[in-house]
Amino acid sequence: MNVVVYSTNSCPWCVKAKEYLDSLKVAYESVNVSENRDAAAEIVQKTRQRGVPVVKVGERYIVGFDQSAIDSALRDADLI
Q1: Residues 11, 50 contacting (CB under 8 angstroms)
Q2: What is the pLDDT of residues 4-59, one digit of tens each?
Q3: Cβ of 21: how many Cβ atoms within 10 Å?
Q4: How many Cβ atoms from other residues are within 10 Å of residue 72's Cβ?
Q5: What 3 state SS string does 15-34 have?
Q6: Among 68, 71, 47, 45, CA closest to 57
Q7: Which of 13, 31, 35, 78 has its C-alpha lying 20 to 30 A from 43's C-alpha?
């Protein structure tokens, strides 16, 4: 899968990121970093930050719900 959303259960911006991808009809894998410590370590290693959501499109990581950055990454990956 080209798109992964790293999130937690208590993150309202994670919900917004997922709802946004749903509205675009973009398929994604949802990874709960509260339950998956390996995934949590991966995003810290790749982004040098601990915040969620992190939206990964291809090899591009977007920290936070940054709609314009998500759109740009999705366009670059020919997903929208």
Answers
A1: no
A2: 999 999 999 999 999 999 999 999 999 999 999 999 999 999 999 989 999 999 99
A3: 21
A4: 14
A5: HHHHHHHHHCCCCCEEEECC
A6: 71
A7: 78
